[in-house]
Amino acid sequence: MFHGSMVALITPMTTDGAIDEQGLEALVAFHLENGTDAIVAVGTTGESPTLSYQEHRHVVKRVIDLVSGRIPVIAGTGSNSTAEAIEMTRWALEDGADAALLVAPYYNKPTQEGLYQHYRAIAEAVAIPQILYNVPGRTVSDILPETVERLAHITNIVGIKEASGNVMRAREIAACCGERLALYSGEDITTLPVMLEAGGRGTISVTANVAPRLMHEMCAAALAGDVEQATALNERLVPLHKALFLEPNPTPTKWALHRMGYCAGGIRLPLLPLSEAQQPRVLEALRHAGINVN
């Protein structure tokens, strides 16, 4: 249903933390012009924890309007409250999103049965395609392959963003779910091995924020089975995959996009702007990928 390079879009902000509306327009245009295959609006890279509900819904709706049906828009609607996740997923359906991305409940540490019941409740409440999002390093909540396999039997659960960073885990999910569930890499550094070794359909990517054309071309080559081309493109991207996580995401990415001239570069507490010490490393990675910076 969804494939290729799907950007986990940052939410551009002014230096005082307000939504940067002009920046949002510029970023969506940037992705439409450079081959991004889908946009994830207000996922965790979009700083969903620090946006109000009103801001969250506004940004999703604005992205949908700007895209105007040219590529899919996937709304981030996850929460550690099942009721809140249902409400935000209903907003996504009402506002015209093509799917919802639901991060595993964070902090409350549900059991595997609790995770199953959480996702089942959302899927049964809202008839929109839904993508699971497993990122145990952030949530301390790991959706195990056997739970993913159970959820794959629910019709409108269509994929999983697997961000454990473990390619073996991706292989396990592919083995137990087969064609019933699309597998996407959730860590840029594992995108190519997940696609080539575990049958992944693409990536939900941070790196695509700053290198949309390269990420699109790399994923397209991998999907086409052109290992040589995909590997060559990935070699240009690997330094970026690393540099954009030198400080907590999306800190380096927002700084990079500001230097590229696409947004004001603001970020909300408790995150801080990129430290001066790390700026040269991000610049070097951008230049290695052939990206012009001011």
What is the helix/strand order? EHEHEHEHEHHEHEHEHHHH
Cα(first) to Cα(last) distance is 38 Å
Name of the CATH architecture: Alpha-Beta Barrel
At the first level of CATH, what is the class?
Answer: Alpha Beta
Helical proportion? 40-55%
What ranges have pLDDT less than 50 throughout 5 or more consecutive residues? none
CATH superfamily: Aldolase class I
Structural class computed from helices and strand pairing: alpha/beta
C-alpha Rg (nearest Å): 18 Å
Shape: globular
Strand order of the largest sheet: 1-2-3-4-5-6-7-8
For the largest beta-sheet, the strand count, sense and barrel status come to: 8 strands, parallel, barrel
* Strand segment count: 8
How many structural domains can be distinguished in the coordinates? 1
Notes on the structure:
The chain is an alpha/beta fold. It has one domain (4-224): Alpha-Beta Barrel (TIM Barrel), CATH 3.20.20.70. The chain is 46% helix and 13% strand. It is globular, with a radius of gyration of 18 Å. It starts with a strand and ends in a 6-residue tail after the last helix. The model has no long low-confidence stretch (mean pLDDT 97).
